[in-house]
């Protein structure tokens, strides 16, 4: 993203910039505290520094709690991010593209020029979906909400890539009918994730 330098005017009564003094700016592109330095020249000596604040405009940052979308999914912002390098966090709360059969919960997404880590899957996010057959969970997901994939009867395969998973909500993968779900998980987390799935009252499944 190309940003313009912010250069507030500096005037010294009776003096001419370039002849009697030099003005230099620093940290004056992105939002935050910038600095202007005035240095005497010719018959004038000495140096003076001032600071000024560059504020973000609406649209340059996201707010916690707002809903955002990409072409396939709907998210809720759980940690603010901005266009100047601060990475936010989101949870997936549903589908925008209802026809999807293969769900891919990304590690990161960029929406509106702001980057986000996808750290959770919301309560009832995909509950009762009749089309999903495959699910891949990205490396930043820490929690899966209660009933997130409950009664997704065609879901057959779940690949969990994250090693950060701490909680699987109640009956997140519970279903009445349908075949067993095959869970593929990181080898180092197999024992721990088996416990999480069991505690969540997951039924009809196998962990590989």
From TrEMBL:
InterPro entries: LRR_5, LRR_dom_sf. Gene3D superfamilies: Ribonuclease Inhibitor. It comes from the Bacteria. SUPFAM superfamilies: L domain-like. Pfam families: LRR_5. This is Leucine rich repeat-containing protein. It comes from Eubacterium uniforme.
